[in-house]
Design goal:
The complex is a heterodimer of chains A (180) and B (202). With 180 residues, chain A is α/β, with parallel strands linked by helices. Chain A has helices at residues 30-46, 109-123, 143-156, 168-176; strands spanning 3-4, 27-28, 53-58, 76-81, 87-91, 100-102, 132-137, 160-163. Chain A has four helices and eight strands, in the order ββαββββαβαβα. Chain B contains seven helices and seven strands. The chains are: A alpha/beta (180), B alpha/beta (202).
Amino acid sequence: MAELDTSGKGGGHKGGKIRSKKASTRIDLTAMVDLAFLLITFFIMTTTLSKPKAMDMFMPDKTKKDVQLPVPETRTMTVWLGANDKIEWFVGAPGKSQPTISNFGKNGIRKDLVEQDKKIQATHAGPDNYMIVLVKPSDHSTYKDFVNMIDEINIAGIKSYGVVDITPAEVAQLKKDGNY
Amino acid sequence: MARIKVPRKSTALDMTAMCDVAFLLLTFFIMTAKLRTDDPLHIDTPFATQVQVVPDENLATIEVGKNKVFFGIEGTDVRKALLEEMGKQYKIQFTPEEEARFAVIPTFGVPMNQLRQYIALNDEQRKTFNQSGIPVDTTTNNELSTWIYQARLVQKNLKNQELRIAIKGDSRDMYPEYKKVVDVLQRQAVNKFVLMTQLKGK
């Protein structure tokens, strides 16, 4: 049997006359071990070992109107989030160039972000030659698309981005392309 | 033929070490355990790669899903003080017993006029109770806005910390749902918050 043996052997009294009968100190541990494992199982099942994860999000301060920086249009990339996980993007002033339709795939928006960032950094003089991304989610885009988009921006290491409300004209363009 | 006798070995084995290990593990799990809380909205958070671990304390969570908004805040003392403040705002006098009961509710989604009724329920009844969500509209003093504002004040007064705010949205939700909550935050000049996500591999 399983037991705990703590009875000392060999160290008896010498010539002792009074000998109390020693009771065995062996204890059966089986039940205790059973219980311990049962509790472990319970705690493993009920705990959430993976801590919740979250993504940082910053929005511009709406109360201060005077802190907006003048930004050259050639350095901005506007991204519209449409329905069905579709994206349209363009660089520069709106209406000048046809927006490119993209997606969240491997060769989708991530590649576009990195390429455009490189292009803009090459054509503009430093030190402020980074690309600014304006994310404009339409009402038909999902929260998942929005989180994905911000994540792609973080992955691409874009220094500056903003979330802006979409305008009716832009919605009209999305509709025309069948992405709304 | 002589039969070969296999010597019988004792089946007794020393379980002391096993017992030690079992209790060590048990202690570890009890210490680190944070019991899984019931999620009334069953939110399926989106995936992201660039994430941080969310802290356990000084955190208010706004859950958005199925066109409903739920609110929760960490810390029993904060919850108690928050309920008292909200009672003052909406002219409802909560008893100390109601405050104690509210202190153990992690998240809730009922309008102020149903809150007392909701607090009076037991755990089982709360699960089946149809929570309609905290009312949100475009005015500056809608209920969600008041909850957040009072929560920030309470956290500041009790712990002298700026309340951290997390938004837990469902990935299937449409963007305007989320936008509605962000607008509430932005009207209070809360421009830094976190979005609850799950980690995904690149």
